[in-house]
Amino acid sequence: MICKIYLFRHGQTNYNKKHIFTGWKDAKLTSLGKKQAKTIARKLRNKKIHVAFQTRLSRSKDTLNEVLKFHPECKIVIEDDRMIERSYGKLQGHSHKDFIKQEGTDDYKTLLHWHKIDHLYGKEKEEFIKKVGEAEFKIVHRSYTVPPPGGESVKMVEKRVNSFIKDLLKFMKREKISVAISAHGNSMRPFRRYFEKFSIQEMMKLENPFDDYFEYSVKV
């Protein structure tokens, strides 16, 4: 017997729209995000969902609520924060743009102190700050092993997501059920890596859509 996992990301939030580090902040769905949730719901309307999973964050719950409008057969909703978004620690609530500018400026001041870049002025100085800041942003945003200050690396997220997957598969095989999972962009990365056999490098390049789902088969 084959049961199914339907994995999807919440719709766009106000933080996503403004390019702000969200993490565990409870950002709300935008009007577009609500439409995206309805799109996922329509795509899943003819599937069977017996149990659904969400996190404590409203964007996960609100997206799932749209999906379950088509599924009266789903009587159980379980909250499990092992699949919650990656924590960005002290960066949560700060914009990507401000981070890039601040990190670039800090690095510029450090190098200036050591007389490494005394020759940079005007436009060259601005370009240097932006380039260095963007490099720092790439590390924080896309590194597998490096956590932001006070936050989680994707490797840390993967550890808790894999714990969730292990328990989920046992649950599905015991109960012979199909499930829906309303997850987050970064928690979906290790989930997809597990089922789609991605390398770490491939996983870190993934861009998870706001308006679609991924389907996996589980033999029970």
Short account of what is shown:
This protein is α/β, with parallel strands linked by helices. It has helices at residues 14-17, 31-44, 58-68, 96-113, 122-142, 154-175, 185-196, 200-204; strands spanning 2-9, 51-54, 76-79, 179-183, 213-219. The chain contains eight helices and five strands, in the order E-H-H-E-H-E-H-H-H-E-H-H-E.
Your description of this structure?
This protein is of the alpha/beta class and 220 residues long. 49% of the residues lie in helices and 13% in strands. It has a five-stranded mixed β-sheet. The longest helix has 22 residues. It is globular, with a radius of gyration of 20 Å. The termini are close together.
Topology diagram in text:
Blueprint: E1 2-9, H1 14-17, H2 31-44, E2 51-54, H3 58-68, E3 76-79, H4 96-113, H5 122-142, H6 154-175, E4 179-183, H7 185-196, H8 200-204, E5 213-219
Parallel strand pairs: 1-4, 2-3, 2-4
Antiparallel strand pairs: 1-5
Helix pairs in contact: 2-3, 4-5, 6-7
Residues in helices, as a percent range:
40-55%
Structural class: alpha/beta
Please name the CATH architecture of the largest domain: 3-Layer(aba) Sandwich
Overall shape: it is globular
**Regarding quaternary structure, how should these chains be classified?**
single chain
Strand order, largest beta sheet = 3-2-4-1-5
Round the Cα radius of gyration to an integer and report it: 20 Å
Largest beta-sheet details: 5 strands, mixed
**What is the string of helix and strand elements?**
EHHEHEHHHEHHE
Task: Please tell me the total number of domains.
Answer: 2
What is the H level of CATH, i.e. the homologous superfamily of the largest domain? Phosphoglycerate mutase-like
How many strands? 5
Classified by CATH, the class of the largest domain is Alpha Beta
pLDDT averaged over residues: 89
* Helical stretch tally: 8
Poorly predicted spans: 111-115
End-to-end gap: 5 Å
Portion of residues in beta strands equals 5-15%
CATH fold descriptor of the largest domain = Rossmann fold
